[in-house]
Every structure is written in C-alpha cells, then in structure tokens.
Specification:
Elements (H helix, E strand, L loop, with lengths): L19 E4 L9 H10 L4 E7 L11 H7 L6 E7 L7 H7 L3 E5 L6 H10 L3 E6 L17 E5 L15 H13 L5 E5 L7 H6 L4 E4 L10 H13 L2
The protein binds D-xylitol-5-phosphate (DX5) and zinc ion.
Zinc ion binds next to strand 2.
C-alpha cells in the first residue's frame, strides 16, 4: 500500500507582513541540493517551489517525484509542486506519496480539471491552479472555489532566469480581489522573474507568495543574503 507523508496545510502558514517566499530549486546547484534547501529554510523561506516539466506542456524537462522524495526527510518547508505536465492526473499520487504538500496544475493541461482538483484533495494535498501568460484570467475563475492557491506566471513557463512580465500583474489584482470577496482563503502566488527590483510591485498587486529561482540561488550572493534582500525589498515599500 502507498503511504503518504504527513501534509502541511497552506491554511497553517504563520501570519506574515509582506509575502511568503517560495525559493525555486530549478535554479539551485544540484550537486549540493540538500545544502541549498537547508540554507533557504534557515534563511526563513516558508515554502519550497519544485518545478516539474514534461517536455510536452513546456519545451523542457526537469525533475520527477524522486527529487521530492529525496528532499522530504531533510526539510520541513511546505513543498509547493508546480506541475508543468500535460497529463497531471497520471502523476498526482506519485508526487503526493513523495511528499508534495501543494500540487498546482495548469489550466492548459489535459483531463477533467475539476476531477483532478478533487483528486489532489483526496490525496491530502492543497490544490493550486495556474495559467500561462497568454491565457486569460477568466479561465481560472470556475475553479477558484475548489483551490487553495492560484498561481500567476509572470514568465513563459519552462525556464528559469527570464525577465518579469509586468503586464501579468492585472491577473494578480483580479485574483486577489476574488479572494477578498470570497472569504480571503485563496492565496495568490507569483512565479517568474521575481527579484528585489520586481517583488514590491508583485506584493502591491496582492500576491501572498513569491516564487524566486535565480534571485535566490545564484553565484553572486549567498542564499541567506538573497532571501534577506527579497524580504527587504517587499517591506521597505
Ligand atoms: C518557470 C518556473 C519557475 C522558475 C522561476 O517555468 O515555473 O518556477 O523556476 O525562475 P526565476 O525566478 O529565475 O524566474
Ligand atoms: Zn514554477
């Protein structure tokens, strides 16, 4: 029988000024992955963003459940798994069993999305929904009552290190407003090109969670320094 590690709920994140941080390991040094994740946790990040790419929904391949499984025993962060895969239903159980806490699927992926979101909850995970920059925010609305998280992509999904697309901030505002008028339970997350220069606009637009890959894991500054700079950029506004 498949066993599922204990799940962390987004509803239990501690109250916070600014936004929660979700460093994305796509930009990490994979020869020292455990060390880099520990550094992000010690620096005060709340979540760990894990990008799963299948070469179909996006033109790149990344990692599978074994990375999630390897990291689970060494980290207490909320594992925020971004499924950039065209048939997410096939892999939900594997990622939940490996230790995912949040499973986010693309509205552009195949399958019955409502059933997929139900399945994510049945597996004990938080459910998230996301969209490409070219997809209108209205396409998410029917699914919002069913999810704990809505993710706005501010780059074309598939690669780290791209430039932030400010035109996507209207989606962040719309989703934040939706959340406010529906009890405030839905968290809005932003992914792509988030760095100390762009983060404050993202938070001002209403984001609750910032994903940051190359601005946290890079050769210029330590993970601790990078996390501190991001936090300050959000708080100093
Ligand atoms: C892109 C991924 C992002 C990526 C962000 O497809 O979804 O999570 O890691 O990387 P940066 O922060 O470098 O834009
Ligand atoms: Zn991502």
């Amino acid at each position: 029988m498949t066993t599922f590690p204990a799940k962390r709920s987004l509803a239990n994140l501690p109250k916070k000024v600014g936004a929660y941080l979700a460093p994305s390991i796509l930009a990490a040094d994979f020869t020292r992955l455990g060390e880099q994740v520990a550094a992000a946790e010690q620096a005060g990040a709340e979540l760990l963003h894990i990008d799963i790419m299948d070469g179909h929904l996006v033109p790149n391949l990344s990692m599978g459940p074994c990375i999630v499984e390897a990291l689970r025993p060494v980290s207490n962060l909320v594992f925020d798994v971004h499924l950039m895969i065209s048939e997410p239903e096939r892999y939900l159980e594997a990622f939940a069993a490996a230790g995912a806490d949040v499973l986010t699927v693309h509205v552009e992926s195949r399958g019955n999305l409502s059933a997929i979101l139900d399945k994510i909850h049945e597996l004990g995970c938080n459910a998230g929904i996301t969209l490409r920059p070219g997809t209108p925010v209205e396409s998410l609305v029917p699914f919002l009552p069913q999810v704990e998280l809505a993710l706005v992509m501010t780059v074309e999904p598939g690669f780290g290190g791209q430039s932030f697309m400010p035109g996507q901030l209207s989606k962040v505002r719309a989703l934040h407003d939706w959340s406010e008028t529906h009890g405030g339970r839905l968290l809005v997350e932003v992914d792509g090109g988030v760095n100390p220069a762009t983060a404050s606009a993202v938070v001002e637009a209403g984001a609750d969670i910032l994903v940051a890959g190359s601005s946290v894991f890079n050769k210029k500054v330590s993970v601790r320094e990078a996390v501190t700079r991001l936090r300050q950029s959000v708080l100093e506004k």
